[in-house]
Specification:
Distance between the termini: 14 Å
Number of helices: 5
Amino acid sequence: ELMETQAEKLVDGDIDLLTEVIGNSMALKGNVVTRDEREGDLRSVLNFGHTVGHGIEALVQDKPDALLHGECVAIGMVKEAEIARAMGFCTSAL
């Protein structure tokens, strides 16, 4: 909710808000990993974007201006959302 209501401040680089959002994300990830140390069903929620992102990463890793891991995952998130929409798992409103 914070990211939705304060999106403009985040894009503008509000350091205090970015610190809060990153801290919340780290706490959430830590909670998931603690509850699912052996990568069962729950931990898979952390993989969004990584399947396609790792494929992109493999294609560009030897290029002079290779994308960063996070950039590849971000592209993967968009592409996986498009696939989910095409398969009827979500709407374009997401």
